[in-house]
Amino acid sequence: MKRVGLYLGCNIPFRRPDVEYSMRYALKALDFEVVDLEGAACCPAFGSMPSVDLLAWCVGSAWNLSIAEEKGLEYIVTGCGSCYGSLNEAKYHMEKHPEIKQKVNEILSSVGKKYEGKVKVYNFYNLIYDLVGLDELKRKVKFPLKGLICGAQPGCHNLWPEKVFPANDENTFQPKRLREICEALGGEAPWYSTITDCCGMGALGTLAKDKSETLFIRKIKTMLEEINPELYVVGCSSCLLRGDNRQAVMKKEGKIDFELPAVHIAQLVALALGAEPEKVLGLTEVPIEKVLEKIRGGA
Asked: How far is CA 186 from CA 138, 234, 268, in A?
């Protein structure tokens, strides 16, 4: 049994704990020992500390990684693209600049910590793809998707900068991994032309809300026109906040005339592996009953 540290970040425990439940359920069902990282802090993400203080950013990231190292872990998994990108970029930055790593450890030593750089940081779908494999995932499925058409959204920070990640699509401009996982669960995940487009979340959503919503609407409308999906499947919790929570608000405000249910890939995997739907989907805002009926027959 492989041991993996569960790094939750901020958005998942604060806004979508259903994703945390789904990750825990899916990882245990796939024979991982889930290890909590007590004392872990913010990653910290791109729009905050890395923009103003690179050393402090590296110290924050190294703090989180050192917790996993103290537990003897080889892997950390996160469901957030921003966490995945930030932790891996800081790790890469410290590897390329040993003097930064030295300063980081001087600071960490004041609280009895040391960062060595041994832990690999995975996002959820790459961990499944690399450490479980599609064949084993298929074997574990209890409730197949029955041809459900999935519009896959890997997420920007899960794809780029590609050189900093321990695992990635062979061609990040033609991503296949998330689509192949949906297919392994029994669904269909066709290619569509805006698959790598940003969902509009993050700093843009705060500083230029109208522009960020325009990005999202264009992405989804193109997806609907080209593949007519029944479900929007994302690899990132920020994409889920935009694809589900914000989509519901835009519908109420009359900004859109569509309703496309959205889930994080961890939720979809957990559902297919047998998790209770109300625990996996309990916080979903865009109506998802038709999707659940197709997969679970109303269970």
From this structure: 8, 17, 11
